[in-house]
Amino acid sequence: MAHFDLPQDQLARYRPELDVPDDLDDFWTRTLDEARSFDLDVSLVRVETGLTAVDVYDVTFSGFGGHRIKAWFVRPAGDAVVPAVVEYLGYGGGRGLPHERLAWAAAGYGHLVMDTRGQGSGWGTGGSTPDPAPAGQGVGGFMTRGIEDPHEHYYRRLYTDGVRAVDAVRAIPGVDPARVAVTGVSQGGAVTLAVAGLADGLVAAMPDVPFMCHLPRAVVLTDSYPYREVADYLRTHRDAEARTMRTLSYVDAAILARTATAPGLFSAALMDLTCPPSTVFAAFHHYGHPAGSDIDVLRFNGHEGGEGLRWPRQRAFLAELLADPLR
């Protein structure tokens, strides 16, 4: 795929106006207050995996609506107090199996991999968390679940789960609650950005080729799914564009990340048809903590992004932040 979006020199200064709802702050304050009215009730069950260098726990905590969300927590064996990384997953995937993600624990971190409600059947080794909320009117997938009202939208629930995952990892014995970072690829990058704007006290946010950014542009720029789900919906609901875009503005990760307080490490791929680079740059240039933040540009990659090359870059970025008390 050739470069199809803005030229790289224009991307470097692409900072479009974002359609921020007047009541956005109140919407999310009420959402998180409601979620926190339920006991977090973190359950940790030690799992025998045959892995001797790490300890593995099956985690359950209360997310949006008090719904029980699953996660894996993997940490270096022993009882040393460690920093932690919370990871969110790509579209259609679930938490899989704990031995599939060992790098952070091997590097001395606690690693919480949050399951994605209602997902886990699209790729990987599955998920364990249902989404008990009704789907409402929409097309297949998750982009249009609850599209008629931001209070009912799927990503309101998922982003809230993401914030509560940070609360949960901070409550785990042996985790330093002041040294927690968030990361994820694609949909996981969207949750990373939303959580960066909604949760306090994070040390870093590391979204790769993030989804759900600058949605009015994304849904007309690419023909690829999942953004195509919105176009499919509007092809039938021809008079619903204004209402649809209003709903999506409450879950646009570029909008939510404007209030982030932790340095961010982004990546964008210039041949990415799934999450077009201009939408990622829109999020980067509106990101709330520009000092110390950076974006890596992959000129010849699509939505696979940097893959295995990203972790060493993230590890070095996070290690530098944790070594700097002023960050």
Automatic annotation (TrEMBL):
Question: Record-annotated residues binding substrate?
Answer: 91
Query: Any idea which residues are catalytic in this one?
Result: 186, 272, 303
Q: Which residues form the Acetyl xylan esterase domain?
A: 1-319
Listed GO biological process terms: polysaccharide metabolic process
Matches recorded under InterPro entries: AB_hydrolase_fold, AXE1_dom, CE7
| Gene Ontology MF term list | carboxylic ester hydrolase activity
Top-level taxon of origin: Bacteria
Pfam families, per database record: AXE1
PANTHER family, per the entry:
CEPHALOSPORIN-C DEACETYLASE (PTHR40111)
Under which name does UniProt file this protein? Acetylxylan esterase
